[in-house]
Design goal:
The complex is a heterodimer of chains A (about 325) and B (about 650). Chain A has helices at about 5-35, 40-50, 55-70, 75-85, 100-135, 140-155, 160-175, 195-230, 235-240, 245-255, 260-270, 275-280, 290-300, 300-330. Chain A has about 325 residues and is mainly α. Chain B is built from 19 helices and 31 strands. The chains are: A mainly alpha (about 325), B alpha+beta (about 650).
Chain lengths: ~325, ~650
């Protein structure tokens, strides 16, 4: 393996670790600067349950909660404690669902988010880029114009509206799909047709809503890129040289236009760990988005950190991998 | 065929199979729907859990953080000594639940004795006794981070039993309302099963899930590990619970609490008869639903539909801040509000208005509103030496008239019905009188007509309000801001997610929120009024206990609170003292009362009938209240399948 390659990898890996360190540090401090306080939230909830609480009782409860949540000590002491825990793989207990470990909560939601968003991200990227390439390359064809118009019409529709239109049309007016949820009530996980069919049926509307909006974006981006690439000299030369249209399209045009889209895909895959809040809300679908949303409102520092750590690490590693993989897509890119 | 093609074919076949399956299921005539395997739809009551998705669904420790409470847990599985229904109750608003009788206090209220019902059993067959009550109190006292722990520490000197069915609390100081800790309004301190919790090392960490032993008539059958639904099944021995013992068998064999998502989806779900009890909707959602499903019924049979909760949203004024510390300025702001427009903007007219400082709900119409009516008619404020009579008892009719243009015959015409549904009256819209009051206090107008403070600075007001989670309140705040701006005060509505924290610390001038909450079914006002005593006054910057965030102090009111505290909970003289409190508030106007917190709880009478309504007000239909357990023995199946 060439020395320059190893040096490049080492340099990028160090950069990646630094980005993760800085990102996590910023995420540690920002929620603590926000006025939302997990102890206040917990006390307010407890007071709402009962009658009027004497000020001394409220103070006593607050002090007990601060100790319990591990929020005593200076910010620096808390920061050191956090890193010790993180390096041992422990993100601590959630403050809004105390004392449930943050990792347990994330572990429960992550598979749903990953399953939905990974699949839809990859499918919409593939479909969008494929259709975008074809529409850009065969831009004078009638079908290309029609697909272009559909994509342009779909893409600007606010996601919330798109999701609702699908629910109204396909779960209420023509009730083909369930109105919400991830699985039929009472169905236990099993590798059976009944379970898998229920899983699929519930995933279709959320997936479709993400796909319709996602495909449009990739399509429009790719079509523009391809339109630019086909004007390049080497494409014109290939045409005159009698290279087959299909080869020009896939080997010359699409491959060259794809690079920015690959970066986009990497970023999107990394951001999967943030979840898809609106999808989860509209379709009552489990995932990380709702978990993070509630954590922010409850001032649950630990859970915010947990979701953020996954997101920061996910994006950083995805970008690192893409950087390393670039030469595979474009031989002109060198490790330097 | 390649494996890829086989995989694609498999997915496609599965999709079609599931689609066809749904069609076939829906289309098969006479088919019985199941909400879950082996759980027939017609035997199940489906209710909305307004908490949404529960982040930690397997946690049922109601005495500590985490988990949900409107999942059926506090409605169907937990129980405590007493309940006060916010409406009329099945036979009386006061219900002796686990207790056999009301609390027995000694003469100076330093001791409370509780007689417990005999023959109540936990769902695992262990008898409920005094030991459970004592254990609950002692466990919470030892853990002040748990709900009620610090309160017990402060109040309870000793708790002990004289026999298995008699518990005695020796209190550290006189407290005639100590029983309120064990009395459900919407929740309270529930009782723990000693035989389960005594084996637990850390009560805060304990999930109370393995097993969740129930004291109510249902047991947990299943729940969604993702936190969207909870399925409960009626106990075989339901007659050994306080509810079954008193009112017979709860009718639904199963109860399913679900988080159905946004309001539009709730409308769709009930229109499809997939959601029997909606917790709350927007006014527009309500109109849309009753137009789609004639079997969807609110509290009132027709406009305004909503159930008035015993909570009073109000324009909170920080009485510490100049010029809001001046009663005449507070009155000027009141008279610069056109309540008809506020009612239209916030609730589409479906608000139950209140001119006085208690919510117009439950028994309060009879206890407080009727007796106050003649006093309000004759009440006047001095405006430049002339009396001005601000009370307007025609608002309900004016609101009805406005709404009738939109909803036609759906709006009732009977004056008595309108008063009950839309409120007895409110304060006149009199900006010219408000102007005189401000001028009298040294305010002036600039060239553009905007009000200047006596020191020459422009008067600006920001009205804190809830964000989109409570849209009715946000809309009310926006309308009031518009009206005050029109009057010449530069006002804006400021939605915030930190509303309660800012109220607690006095970090506001004006806010649209609530601090007056009553029992509804009992006239005692001590529930919220205790913290209005000047002993509990905390200046802005310090955290106030959340029932006096307006920082109001009044010596006469202190006397009233002390007198109420010294009297028995059921002493009729407390109502007279309550009326004195109301008169002080009208004169001083520490906050501007607006309306009851109306909740569009909608019940679908398709599978079940006999839900509570204004005509049959045996309990509150709002699904997150623990009192909704009383609905279960009262509803009946319609026979539809």
């Amino acid at each position: 393996m060439p020395r320059s390659f190893l040096s490049y990898i080492a340099q990028r890996a160090v950069q990646c670790v630094l980005v993760i360190l800085i990102g996590i540090t910023i995420t540690f401090f920002i929620p603590r600067l926000s006025p939302t306080d997990p102890v206040e939230t917990a006390v307010n909830q407890a007071v709402m349950v009962g009658q009027f609480s004497h000020p001394d009782a409220v103070r006593e409860m607050k002090e007990a909660l601060i100790r319990l949540y591990g929020l005593d000590g200076t910010l620096l002491q808390q920061y050191v404690r956090f890193w010790k825990g993180l390096l041992a793989g422990d993100l601590g207990p959630s403050l809004s669902s105390f004392p449930k470990p943050v990792m347990t909560l994330i572990r429960g939601s992550l598979p749903w988010t990953a399953g939905l968003l990974l699949t839809t991200a990859v499918i919409s990227w593939t479909l969008g880029n494929l259709l975008g390439s074809l529409a850009g390359y065969y831009k004078n064809q009638r079908w290309a114009s029609i697909v272009g118009i559909i994509a342009m019409a779909l893409h600007p529709i606010p996601y919330y509206i798109m999701a609702f239109v699908l629910v109204v049309l396909l779960a209420y007016v023509v009730p083909i799909f369930p109105i919400g949820g991830a699985i039929d009530i009472g169905l236990k996980p099993a590798f059976s047709i009944v379970y898998l069919s229920s899983l699929l049926r519930h995933a279709i509307l959320p997936s479709l809503s993400l796909l319709l909006v996602g495909v449009g974006g990739w399509f429009l981006g790719m079509r523009t890129l391809v339109t630019n690439v086909i004007a390049e000299d080497y494409v014109t030369y290939a045409k005159y040289a009698g290279v087959r249209d299909r080869v020009i399209m896939y080997q010359y045009v699409m491959r060259n236009a794809l690079l920015p889209q690959i970066t986009g895909l990497a970023m999107q895959l990394g951001l999967i760990f943030n979840g898809a809040l609106i999808t989860e809300y509209v379709f009552s679908y489990p995932g990380l988005g709702y978990l993070a949303y509630n954590a922010i409102f409850a001032g649950d520092y630990s859970l915010i950190m947990g979701v953020a750590v996954f997101s920061i690490v996910g994006v950083s590693i995805a970008v690192l991998l893409i950087d390393l993989a670039y030469p595979l897509f474009d031989p002109r890119v060198k490790y330097q | 065929m390649s494996w890829k093609r086989r995989l694609i074919l498999f997915v496609v076949v599965m999709l079609f199979a599931s689609m066809l399956g749904s069609y076939a299921w829906a289309a098969e005539p006479g088919a019985t729907l199941d909400v879950a395997p082996g759980v027939p739809r017609h035997e199940t009551l489906i209710l909305e859990n307004p908490e949404g998705r529960i982040a930690d669904p397997g946690r049922f420790n109601r005495w500590a953080q985490g988990g949900g409470n409107s999942t059926g847990l506090q409605q169907l599985a937990l129980d405590t000594l007493w309940y006060i229904d916010p409406d009329a109750g099945i036979d009386d608003p006061w219900n002796n639940s686990l207790a056999e009788a009301p609390p027995i206090y000694n003469e100076d209220y330093t001791q409370m004795t509780v007689k417990l019902r005999k023959g109540i059993y936990w769902s695992d067959g262990v008898e409920f006794t005094a030991d459970d009550v004592i254990f609950t109190v002692e466990t919470l006292m030892a853990n002040p981070a748990m709900s009620f722990g610090a309160q017990f520490q402060l109040n309870v000197d000793r708790v002990y039993k004289t026999d298995d069915y008699t518990v005695v609390f020796d209190l550290k100081q006189p407290n005639s309302r100590f029983h309120a800790i064990f009395t459900v309004r919407w929740s309270a301190c529930f009782i723990m099963p000693k035989h389960i919790w005594e084996k637990v090392d850390d009560p805060v960490a304990f999930d109370f899930n393995d097993p969740l032993v129930s004291l109510g008539p249902y047991v947990l059958k299943d729940y969604d590990p993702n936190g969207y639904w909870y399925l409960w099944e009626r106990r075989e021995d339901w007659h050994r619970t306080s509810l079954g013992m008193q009112y017979g068998m709860p009718q639904p064999k199963y109860a399913l609490y679900i988080a159905p998502g946004p309001a539009d989806k709730r409308v769709m779900a009930q229109a499809n008869h997939d959601l029997d009890v909606i917790h709350d909707l927007t006014p527009e959602g309500m109109i849309s639903l009753v137009n789609r499903n004639p079997l969807s019924k609110g509290w009132f049979d027709g406009f305004p539909w909503a159930h008035p909760d015993p909570t009073l949203p109000a324009v909170m004024l920080n009485n510490e801040k100049y010029p809001l510390n001046l009663p005449e300025v507070r009155w000027a702001l009141t008279l610069a509000i056109d309540i008809v427009n506020v009612s239209m903007a916030s609730y589409n007219g479906a608000a139950t208005l209140s001119a006085i400082h208690v919510p117009p709900t439950g028994g309060y119409l009879e206890w407080y509103f009727d007796p106050m009516e003649s006093w309000l008619q004759s009440f006047s404020i001095d405006v430049d030496g002339e009396p001005f009579y601000p009370y307007d008892d025609t608002v309900a009719f004016r609101v009805a008239e406005t709404v009738r243009k939109q909803l036609g015959d759906q709006v009732p015409t009977d004056p008595e019905q309108l008063k009950k549904a839309l409120g007895y009256g409110w304060w006149k819209y009199a900006p010219e009188v408000a102007e005189k009051l401000l001028l009298k206090n040294g305010f002036t107008r600039d060239r553009r007509g905007n009000w200047l403070l006596p020191n020459g600075e422009q008067w600006k007001i920001s009205i804190l309000c809830h964000g989109p989670t409570v849209p009715t309140m946000t809309r009310a705040a926006t309308m009031i801001a518009e009206q005050w701006t029109k009057f010449g005060i530069e006002t804006k509505a400021e939605p915030t997610d930190l509303l309660w924290t800012r109220l607690d610390y006095g970090d506001y001038d004006v806010c649209l929120a609530w601090c007056i909450e009553t029992w509804g079914g009992h006239p005692d006002l001590f529930w919220f009024l205790e913290s209005w005593h000047s002993d509990y006054y905390r200046p802005s910057g310090e955290q106030v206990v959340n029932k006096n965030p307006m920082r109001f102090k009044n010596e006469e009111l202190d006397r009233i609170i002390e007198e109420i505290k010294g009297r028995d909970f059921d002493d009729p003289a407390c109502v007279d003292l309550g009326i004195e409190y109301l008169k002080i508030c009208v004169k001083e106007m520490p906050i501007i009362p607006l309306m009851a917190y109306n909740v569009f709880a909608v019940c679908d009478w398709y599978y079940w009938e006999g839900f509570p309504t204004a005509d049959n007000p045996y309990t509150n239909p709002v699904a997150n209240w623990a009192n909704t357990k009383f609905m279960f023995p009262m509803i009946r199946p319609t026979g539809r399948k």
